[in-house]
Design goal:
By secondary structure, the protein is of the alpha+beta class. The protein has 12 helices and 14 strands.
Length: 360
């Protein structure tokens, strides 16, 4: 009885938030613009390009001729926008685009969506000084680097987990070990931040200076697959932009599935058993928030160890099932097509919340 009461209290806390929006809002763009810009048309065009890349999983989608034409009409797809002041003569423009409008652009251009679970990347990045090669910086010691990584990842529809490099991390892994590709210790240190065993790990080692000469090597570890890229750029922003563009293309090509009717939105009932405590509830909601086709998740009820969700998804039931098939942490599920219901036993899966271990 005490266990059920504790879980009920936890669910009241979650319900108080009303809705679990995706960690990455695929249909919202965030761009920096000049405060004295005369027209928003070009800004809306840039913002729509960002959204199309995120939704499709294709960094080159904006070069498709039919999409180039639609970009010039970006304003008609804008649902809402707002500004946030920045001190250096710029401001951040947040633009929300119509879900159906964006999906229609992709569908009529013969482009698909990146369907399915979007993993957070455990991201180990070390910046080496050209002046003093023995001096290393990490996102935890360089706020600008941390902000750049998070911002560029979000712009490409990705999310990052940046290690905090505290004593626990440093006992296993030091910055110079990242530089020299000590994969064994990188994998061991990453366990603290991973929510399942094959969660991708991104490793970046960058050397640069203020005179416009930056070199970087990036390695993506995903299960047994290893992919690497090298770049030379004029600044750190361009370096990180190149890295996430390549990562997006690689992950989307290897994990994406395309749906034919990507303008359809439909409600599906999800029944999850095995939700025996608040940690289990956190883990399942966190998992659902990272499935790109799910645009809204509501807790519908609780009955002992079962939690029911009402989910709104682009592509409806077929897209959710395809997403579950591409999620390595889902071992099994069953479907009742007549009632439009999906059943999952969360105890049989490996996706567990570890935020209490990371200090986040």
């Amino acid at each position: 009885m005490k266990k059920l009461l504790a879980l009920t209290i936890a669910i009241f806390i979650f319900c108080g938030q009303a809705s679990f929006a995706s960690n990455i809002d695929l249909y919202r763009a965030e761009i920096l613009i000049s405060k004295d810009a005369n027209s928003l048309d070009s800004s809306f065009k840039t913002a729509l390009k960002q959204v199309l890349i995120k939704v499709s999983g294709n960094p080159e989608v904006a070069s498709v001729p039919s999409i180039v034409k639609e970009l010039s009409n970006a304003t008609k797809y804008v649902q809402s926008y707002r500004f946030n002041n920045v001190d250096d003569g710029h401001e951040t423009l947040f633009v929300k685009f119509s879900v159906n409008g964006v999906n229609k652009i992709l569908s009529e251009s013969g482009q698909g969506m990146w369907l399915g679970y979007r993993p957070s990347l455990v991201t180990w990045v070390v910046l080496q000084s050209e002046i003093d090669p023995a001096y290393y910086q990490t996102p935890s010691s360089n706020a600008k680097l941390s902000k750049l990584l998070e911002g560029k990842a979000q712009a490409y529809g990705l999310s990052t987990i940046l290690p905090i490099w505290d004593i626990q991390d440093l006992k296993i892994l030091k910055p110079e070990q990242v530089w020299f590709d000590d994969f064994q210790d990188i994998l061991k240190a990453s366990e603290r931040y991973q929510t399942y065993s094959e969660q991708p790990i991104l490793i970046g080692t960058v050397t640069g200076s203020k005179v416009g000469s930056w070199q970087g090597r990036w390695i993506l570890l995903e299960g047994r697959d290893i992919k690497s890229w090298q770049f030379k750029t004029e600044n750190i922003e361009e370096m990180i932009n190149h890295a996430f563009a390549k990562v997006l293309s690689y992950i989307a090509n290897n994990n994406a599935a395309l749906i034919e009717n990507n303008s359809l939105t439909e409600k599906v009932h999800l029944k999850v058993s095995g939700v025996i405590n608040s940690d289990k509830l956190t883990s399942i909601t966190k998992f659902l928030k990272n499935i790109s086709v799910i645009i809204d998740t509501q807790i519908a009820g609780i009955n002992q160890d079962q939690t029911d969700f009402n989910i709104t998804a682009i592509g409806g039931m077929p897209s959710i099932l395809e997403a579950f098939r591409h999620a390595s942490m889902i071992k099994s599920f069953r479907v009742d097509p007549i009632k439009n219901e999906i059943f999952i036993n969360w105890q049989s899966n490996t996706y567990e919340n570890q935020t209490t271990n990371t200090g986040n």
